[in-house]
Amino acid sequence: MSLGTLYGLIAIGYTMVYGILRLINFAHADVMMMSTYFAFFGISMFALPWWVAAIIAMILTALLGIMIDQGAYRPLRRAPRISALITAIGVSFLLENLGLVIFGSRPRAFFRPEIFRPVWQFGEIHVLSLSVYTICITAVLLVFVYIIIYRTRIGMAMRAISRDMQTVPLMGVDLNRVIAFTFGMGSALAAAGGILWAMKYPQIEPLMGIFPGLKAFVAAVLGGIGNVFGAVIGGFILGVTEILLVAFFPEFSGYRDALAFLLLILVLLFRPTGIMGEVLPE
User: Fold this and answer.
1) For residue range 28-40, what is the model confidence (pLDDT) as tens digits?
2) Do the Cβ atoms of 61 and 41 come closer than 8 Å?
3) Segment 69-79 mean pLDDT
4) What pLDDT score does 281 carry?
5) What's the predicted TM-score (pTM) here?
6) How confident is the model at residue 94 (pLDDT cuts 50, 70, 90)?
7) How many Cα atoms are found within 13 Å in the side-chain-facing hemisphere of 65?
8) Is 274 within 8 Å of 222 (Cβ atoms)?
């Protein structure tokens, strides 16, 4: 379950950006990767408490997401969508190669706080406390996202832009401000997912975001890209399916990554809008 919630948490950023710009932000996974290094250096170089380092990493990652939007995507608002898509791929490669140059290719051990280390026993079942905390943290963040989207003015603007980007600015809404906020919030959620991922698999390296990012994208499509809660449901389904495959068919455990892409193909063939998605206006 914790694996699925991590996929869902990362997938929220994909689905929020797509819901507004109809853009698959392929740099999202590498933004997640950068967040783990922000937290890593906050703990190792500045001796910050892990939770302070995590909060600062989320803030810095949100700023990075906003900078990417303002520097790479904003100039292409009126360009053909293929231009923005190619730019997203370029930004992804840029972040990966910057990471290799600045941080090096050698994996680094990531700190797992003491609170996340115990293994709890429930009868015959042993559960790592980190797995339970991951589900709880994701639930809290999902409630926060719900409040932002459905109980605030900027959330109302986000929903309006997802319906009609051309008309909303005529009503006095600052389009670029709302889009920048969306990138910032999506990047902060990716940071939370990235830090939890680094604690679950405690090492980081500049290419670590590729597979989690691709699987989060599959989760977003499975749940209904453009739907925040669908992304979480899609992530949960993908994670549980992977774990069940390994549990019941261990001889096929090497194909768990292929399973994710098989699900993507099946969804696109038989239900392109996903579980909770809908046909969005062009």
Assistant:
1) 999 999 999 999 9
2) no
3) 91
4) 53
5) 0.92
6) very high
7) 33
8) yes
pLDDT confidence of 279, banded at 50, 70, 90?
A: low
Contact between 156 and 26 under an 8 Å Cβ cutoff? The reply is no
CB under 8 Å to 168, separation ≥6 — which residues? Answer: 157, 160, 161, 175
* pLDDT for the residue 280: 55
Burial class for 190, CB neighbours closer than 10 Å (0-12, 13-18, 19+) = buried
The neighbouring-strand residues paired with 127 are 120
Domains of the chain: 2-270 (1.10.3470)
DSSP of the chain = -HHHHHHHHHHHHHHHHHHHH----TTHHHHHHHHHHHHHHHHHTT---HHHHHHHHHHHHHHHHHHHIIIIIGGGTTS-HHHHHHHHHHHHHHHHHHHHHHH-SS-EEPP--GGG--EEEETTEEEEHHHHHHHHHHHHHHHHHHHHHHHSHHHHHHHHHHH-TTTGGGGT--HHHHHHHHHHHHHHHHHHHHHHHHHHS-EE-TTTTHHHHHHHHHHHHHH-TT-HHHHHHHHHHHHHHHHHHHHH-GGGGGGHHHHHHHHHHHHHHH-TT-SS------
* Averaged confidence pLDDT in the chain: 90
- Tokens representing 87 are 């730019």
Angle among Cα 186, 213, 117 to the nearest 5 degrees reads: 85
Question: Residue 177: is it exposed, middle or buried by C-beta count within 10 angstroms (0-12/13-18/19+)?
Answer: exposed
For residue 173, which amino acid is it?
A: V
- Please name the amino acid found at residue 90: G
Q: What is the pLDDT of residues 201-240, one digit of tens each?
A: 999 999 999 999 999 999 999 998 888 889 999 999 999 8
- Say how far apart CA 253 and CA 250 lie, in whole Å: 5
